[in-house]
């Protein structure tokens, strides 16, 4: 009977999400290869038992599963094209990055060209859930290989939502969920800013909401960060701009009117232009 130790996983991209994903896979007994464009980030995982590689071909060689956790669609596509000579036909490709509808279609086509089994599996959650293996995986893909990918999902997340066999459905769902996260972020940031602007202690907004129907763990975490002026990134403004654009573009294609989403994108863009791209998206408050 095979075990996780018999499975080699190549994690391409070891940033805020990719690094804890690689660590948690190793903790569950998988052999983990890691690659990152900034080599030092992959090398930092060696102390945790992960094998770091300087080239994409070396990282994917011998891997049963390739997991991509890169910034955007073009980055994922470029990495997999560079890795192509070492990819084994029949390997499983688990695509965790948020790349939008067109990006997912492009990557699924690439997978087919190289004989890979493709799973569209963006995650719900940021740095802290990733570190705690508490991500929610939104998975779409063929039924036949789900027994291969489910242990991977179980190692990095608390729940897997199998959306459908249709590739791209998960990425569509992720855009809807991201829109909700952005709306919550902007709503909180503006409410605290309004209180301060009107001469009221913003902490009183949090006090009134706490324990009531509008309260949530997300509300508390982002409010605490804003009040403490602590914008260490769990999900950066730069990434928020990228994902908010994907939401608006997808809505345009579907002829869905998204006034709040457009306004939220403009707000994130304003914060980005002000030089806060590396800060957490709670820095919407700084707009």
UniProtKB/TrEMBL annotation:
This is NAD(P)-dependent oxidoreductase. GO terms for molecular function: oxidoreductase activity. The keyword Cell membrane does not apply. Residues 8-162 form the 6-phosphogluconate dehydrogenase NADP-binding domain. Keywords: NAD, Oxidoreductase. Residues 168-284 form the 3-hydroxyisobutyrate dehydrogenase-like NAD-binding domain. It comes from the Bacteria. The keyword NAD applies. Its EC number is 1.1.-.-.
